[in-house]
């Protein structure tokens, strides 16, 4: 376990302060006192300043992790701990996890659930306006539509109180919501101010707009980011936005028709901004080589390929450098034009959509849409008879707003990738964030302490340099702490093997790895390993393409048949939904072989670094007695995105004496992070044991060895030839199998 923390002098006091007498006391008493306090504040006269009506946020810890199952595991640990009884904990999640309206839940996808929920709330607003209009003397204009019965202010307040009384995971929260007939999605958000511990996924914490929409305030709080090994990539991914040619055309078409219908009612200033948005959309399509007036599906582009531009070059090439995007963005935010457009297309969608293709929205964009505060009523127009009430995908303009926002937030730190692929609908514009620290800076600035924790945080230099130093954190504020591994030293055997049984040097560079002699030598090594390793062997390849190539070569040469004498062979499946089935068969095979005896002693799994089995999958005990890493999984240097990121780091980060340039260090770190994640799959508990075999002489270089986790690095043996390596492996597994 490794962790980095950024702290202020008061960080050590946070827990005591959160639970101390000066703060809210814990348990039931605390919540009733809070309720009293809030009620009193809410009952103050209407002319009291808005800020005074807001609930106070007690000092708290925000704990975030990557997946809901990791968050649930953490909540269960809190429940079991001595603090479980009197900690006010609230779990946040998406509507997909927390919605209790069965009619909405059964829609399945995040997008449809978000859209339907927002629509139901909009209906609530409309219902109110209908009530207004039904007053004597007013003519009724609209039939009231369905609203969500779980979105009642009174019930939500009761649910909020219940949530804070006892620690609950997401499932318990949903059960409580059903019982109380109140929405857990909103109820949990209402509970944030009084909670001492808020458990939430990355996406809510790491995006300023999502934080704001969820009502999270980080000032003076403590943030713990678990599983932080991918934090830099996560922040980059969350803030990188891609818009397709289809979305651009669709947004243009919808906005144009909205303007045609309501143009006369719009104020001149609003009309001006809408025309600017239309102009920008048209220019974005033009820069991709398309025409906004034609269907994106039928437009084939004369050019194809990828072009990478700085933000200012992109704006200039698109001929929109004369448009003030900051003002356009502000107009979008204030007017909520995309939300209005969503309502408009809900009513007239059938005649608007230029193609039947649904906009490609990333999960996070949907998530952001769902968090937009306030719901704007659709334009006042009569509902048409026989109107299709089925929810439709949200407005593509919402997604494009994210792209515009990205263009305005990071001029020097961002790039735009123009990807032209065959037809306009397949082409896209992507904003690439080069400096994730821009967005992390606010977190470290506001919090009293930030803890980045993970099982395999090595190499940590990226976090220090790319994230913390670039976010303005002084080196003295960063504390590094590593607590080693729970297993005894002799339960792992990490080996770097530099050459194979026939003395072939092992160096899997792009030039050499496809040589038949390299693939043959790798096969011979695996055959030898499978003879002495019991149970499961997991073999990682640097890419899917290379794995397929090696598999085909071994199939032809008869090596697969030789391997199959000792191990049943499995391959990582192409599709995510097949992973579970393959793993089930793999573990059944190992179990069966262990009981039956015979020639076949287990199974051999061919996996890919960074693939579906290199993270989050547990190859404990017999499932993974040996992990083999074939070559070094360097990211593709031909990637335009990686090249730009390397150049950016070389320009912006200082180069320490005797060190490789920052860009090259990035490539090495990406490679070693992936290696560390993969090899960490096999050792999962204190009594577990496994050998770790790194096949490539480049692993023996001191700067590379230094990037292994300390608990592996301290025990690693470099073997120049195969004989001693094989002897060490045979001895290790004989001893361990005898004692287990
Ligand atoms: S308010 Fe809550 S329960 Fe109702 S639809 Fe939205 S998420 Fe579901």
From TrEMBL:
InterPro entries: ATP-dep_Helicase_C, DinG/Rad3-like, Helic_SF1/SF2_ATP-bd_DinG/Rad3, Helicase-like_DEXD_c2, P-loop_NTPase, RAD3-like_helicase_DEAD, Rad3/Chl1-like. Its main location: nucleus. This is ATP-dependent DNA helicase DDX11 isoform X3. NCBIfam families: rad3. Residues 1-278 form the Helicase ATP-binding domain. The keyword Cell inner membrane does not apply. GO terms for cellular component: nucleus. It comes from Neophocaena asiaeorientalis asiaeorientalis. Its cofactor is [4Fe-4S] cluster. GO terms for biological process: establishment of sister chromatid cohesion; nucleobase-containing compound metabolic process. Gene3D superfamilies: P-loop containing nucleotide triphosphate hydrolases. Belongs to the DEAD box helicase family. DEAH subfamily. DDX11/CHL1 sub-subfamily. CDD domains: SF2_C_XPD. Residues 1-53 are annotated as: Disordered. PROSITE patterns: HELICASE_ATP_BIND_2 (PS51193). GO terms for molecular function: ATP binding; DNA binding; DNA helicase activity; hydrolase activity, acting on acid anhydrides, in phosphorus-containing anhydrides; iron-sulfur cluster binding; metal ion binding; RNA binding.
